[in-house]
């Protein structure tokens, strides 16, 4: 009887070598590992630029690094030496899939590695399509989002905390590997895929019509604070100082909001005086400030618990603003099957997310990140068929650690 493949590990049997730092490619490698691929992360002896990145434990261990490298194997190599570069080339050729954001190195360029493995799949993340450098924060500054983020009266740019382009780029990179593996299985050929971070941001800005709006209408988006463009959505504050985000996307949502706040007649009168039809989302958006003025009294007269209890009885979309510390102890984390208890060496035991996809109703659980170089000897023995003596000689020479 043939063993059935594990549906939660569709990439089982795919081997990947990763040379990376920071967010996009480490996220891609971790995602691929969570889907069943065997991912070997290769770092310089002592760690790459992100090995000590904050946040860190009291002992200086990077919580950040552990978070983005779960489920991988770690090999530490002297990447500057000829012997180290030769080892890495051999490991990439053996694996057949290479992902990296370290570009411009001739010794691990696609042209060089393809000669060793003609069906190689190589996915490279770069800063800009023109070859220039860039990270999420500089790319974001040049795309436009910081100048439409923040309070309406503010003139300075506001950077968002979430590295959105790194995250999106990491998912694109993982998708590129999965589709290239499928192509190789069918056509027998490898692929060289380049993903400039700036292009991910530009594509997103275009797909969401931020750029298209300027092209078609000749006008640029303006700041609107915590409102939602084209819809009715607004922040409200309770009598005890807690903030809520309230969103009415549909006519039903909006009707429930007026009934909840006791403003149905006042909203109708406002619509008559303005010549507005509040069953149309555009009119709700255009006159959002006047509507907010009517709704605000209901919120400021009630405590956060009273507001939450009342909102739960409606169709209105809402959530209370929370800190990360509050979310970490909330049932959305503590009672969520996405999270499982993880004993991460040197960091501690905590609830860690696995793959955020429920496959046949199950979330693949998180697997601890390795310590730097944990798998050096094992990988060299299994992948390059080196003897113990050969591995020991490389360690003694400082070629690997």
From TrEMBL:
Pfam families: CoA_transf_3. This is Dehydratase. InterPro entries: CoA-transferase_III, CoA-Trfase_fam_III, CoA-Trfase_III_dom3_sf, CoA-Trfase_III_dom_1_sf. It comes from Mycolicibacterium sediminis. One of its GO terms (molecular function) is catalytic activity. Signal peptide: none annotated.
């Amino acid at each position: 009887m043939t063993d059935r493949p594990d549906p939660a590990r569709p990439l089982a049997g795919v081997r990947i070598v990763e040379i990376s730092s920071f967010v996009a490619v480490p996220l891609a490698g971790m995602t691929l590992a969570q889907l069943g691929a065997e991912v070997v992360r290769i770092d310089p002896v002592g760690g790459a630029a992100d090995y000590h990145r904050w946040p860190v434990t009291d002992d200086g261990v990077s919580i950040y690094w552990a978070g983005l490298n779960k489920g991988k194997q770690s090999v530490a190599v002297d990447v500057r030496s000829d012997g180290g570069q030769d080892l890495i080339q051999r490991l990439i050729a053996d694996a057949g899939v290479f992902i990296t954001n370290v570009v411009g190195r001739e010794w691990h360029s696609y042209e060089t590695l393809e000669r060793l493995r003609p069906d190689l799949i190589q996915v490279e993340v770069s800063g800009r399509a023109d070859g220039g450098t860039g990270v999420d924060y500089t790319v974001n500054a040049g795309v436009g989002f910081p100048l439409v983020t923040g309070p309406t009266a503010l003139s300075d740019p506001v950077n968002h905390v979430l590295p959105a382009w790194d995250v999106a780029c990491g998912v694109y990179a993982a998708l590129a590997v999965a589709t290239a593996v499928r192509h190789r299985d069918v056509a027998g050929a490898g692929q060289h895929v380049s993903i400039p971070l700036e292009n991910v941001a530009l594509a997103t800005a275009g797909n969401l019509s931020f750029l298209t709006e300027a092209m078609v209408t000749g006008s640029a988006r303006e700041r609107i604070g915590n409102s939602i463009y084209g819809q009715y959505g607004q922040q409200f504050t309770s009598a005890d100082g807690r903030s809520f985000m309230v969103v009415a996307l549909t006519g039903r949502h909006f009707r429930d909001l007026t009934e909840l706040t006791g403003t149905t007649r006042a909203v109708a009168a406002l619509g008559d005086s303005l010549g507005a039809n509040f069953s149309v989302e555009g009119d709700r958006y255009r006159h959002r400030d006047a509507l907010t003025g009517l709704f605000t009294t209901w919120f400021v007269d009630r405590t956060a618990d009273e507001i939450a209890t009342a909102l739960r009885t409606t169709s209105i979309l809402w959530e209370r603003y929370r800190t990360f510390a509050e979310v970490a102890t909330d049932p959305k984390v503590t009672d969520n099957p996405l999270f499982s208890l993880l004993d991460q060496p040197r960091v501690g035991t905590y609830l860690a997310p696995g793959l955020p996809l429920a496959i046949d109703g199950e979330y693949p659980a998180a697997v601890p990140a390795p310590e730097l170089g944990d798998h050096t000897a094992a990988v060299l023995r299994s992948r390059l068929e080196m003897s113990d003596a050969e591995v020991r000689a490389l360690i003694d020479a400082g070629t690997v650690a």
